[in-house]
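Project outcomes to date are best conveyed with an example. Our students and postdoctoral researchers have been running inverse folding experiments weekly, and each run begins with a structure described purely in tokens. The record below, which covers 379 residues, was selected by the lab manager from last quarter's runs and is presented without edits.
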């Protein structure tokens, strides 16, 4: 497989969908077969001798010999049922496949999506935590997600009850971007109580899954989902977690993947603070504000925001520089609300927030309360 090719052609999509449904395939075996044979169609054409030569056992050979074409056709129908471009499959060699995720061990062979797949190219911070969160935990998740979204970052989480749902809602409330990574097929919503939230994310953000339509939310799916959440992100913020929880699995996966880990401390009497305290003892950054996150991620954000904030007129770097200059001129010597800047510059909120964050990281702009910004003039 080679990175950076065009989206999979319709003629090949059916073979991809059939390959992904082969029992016992998995990311490692699938990658090995694709590396050897070049494409899903070529994998199926290789036959038993070719499969065995690539290290496939009898179970895998049996699955490859009898692809589930009916299920693949059902997947095609699910994709076609969405508005153009809002449902699809992003394969490992697709240019839209996120570069950070491609780097991790056991990277997914492909990702089903519903919504705006362009969000995969934006800088992301994951927020995870307890399902049975306290009122304070939910408030913290919404507040941190809203502020991260206002500052130009995409908030990624797992659509679970509690902290995850609060993080998605916080990002949406700030008119920001959010990605929900699911542990089931995207033809259903789990948990069902988050149905309205999932629909809002599909309309204004992105739903993502490694699992084909129809796959139920089995317990073993969620550790696999968690590695995607951390793999997509620059860093992971944990808000409330028991000593043994899926959130700690996500945080430890993040550390193994070389991502930054942040944790909000809590009362020593709160059982949901113990997981965060354990992470802090293990080296996670104690986090009290969004600025703690931005300061730690500043070098990575500088690189990513330069690529995200624009592509015209000649190159991403030149486009960002021109837009930065326009923002600084629009600020002049006043403190200006984000809404006003959007009106003055005619730039989408997400793009403008990304540039403002970059200027803030450079020390050229200061963020004030109420989504207001001013130019920092050095003596």
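After processing, the design step wrote out the following sequence:
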């Amino acid at each position: 497989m080679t990175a950076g090719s065009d989206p999979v052609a319709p003629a090949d999509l059916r073979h991809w969908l059939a390959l992904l449904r082969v029992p016992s395939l998995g990311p490692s075996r699938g990658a090995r077969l694709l590396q050897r044979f070049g494409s899903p169609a070529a994998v199926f054409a290789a036959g038993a001798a070719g499969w065995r030569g690539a290290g496939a056992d009898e179970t895998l050979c049996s699955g490859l010999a009898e692809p589930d074409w009916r299920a693949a056709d059902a997947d095609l129908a699910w994709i076609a049922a969405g508005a153009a471009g809002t449902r699809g499959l992003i394969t490992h060699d697709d240019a839209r496949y996120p570069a950070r995720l491609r780097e991790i061990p056991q990277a997914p062979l492909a990702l089903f999506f519903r919504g705006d797949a362009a969000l995969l190219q934006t800088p992301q911070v994951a927020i995870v935590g307890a399902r049975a969160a306290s009122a304070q935990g939910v408030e913290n998740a919404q507040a941190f997600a809203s502020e991260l979204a206002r500052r130009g970052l995409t908030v990624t989480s797992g659509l679970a009850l509690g902290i995850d749902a609060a993080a998605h809602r916080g990002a949406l409330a700030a008119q920001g971007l959010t990605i929900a990574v699911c542990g089931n097929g995207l033809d259903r919503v789990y948990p069902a109580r988050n149905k309205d939230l999932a629909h809002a994310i599909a309309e204004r953000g992105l739903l993502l899954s490694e699992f084909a339509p129809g796959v139920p939310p089995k317990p073993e799916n969620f550790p696999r989902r968690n590695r995607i959440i951390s793999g997509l992100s620059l860093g992971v913020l944990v808000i409330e977690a028991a000593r043994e929880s899926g959130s700690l699995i996500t945080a430890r996966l993040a550390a193994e993947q070389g991502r930054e880990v942040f944790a909000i401390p809590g009362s020593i009497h709160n059982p949901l603070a113990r997981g965060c305290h354990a992470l802090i003892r293990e080296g996670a950054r104690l986090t009290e504000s969004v600025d703690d996150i931005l300061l730690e991620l500043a070098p990575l954000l500088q690189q990513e925001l330069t690529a995200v904030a624009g592509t015209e007129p000649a190159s991403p770097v030149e486009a960002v520089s021109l837009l930065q200059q326009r923002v600084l001129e629009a600020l002049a010597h006043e403190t200006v609300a984000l809404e006003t800047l959007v009106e003055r510059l005619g730039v989408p909120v997400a793009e403008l927030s990304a540039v403002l964050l970059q200027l803030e990281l450079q020390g050229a702009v200061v963020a004030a309360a109420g989504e207001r910004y001013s130019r920092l003039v050095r003596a």
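Confidence is low (pLDDT under 50) at residues 310-319. The chain has three domains: 10-83, 117-294, 309-375. The training component of this project remains on track.
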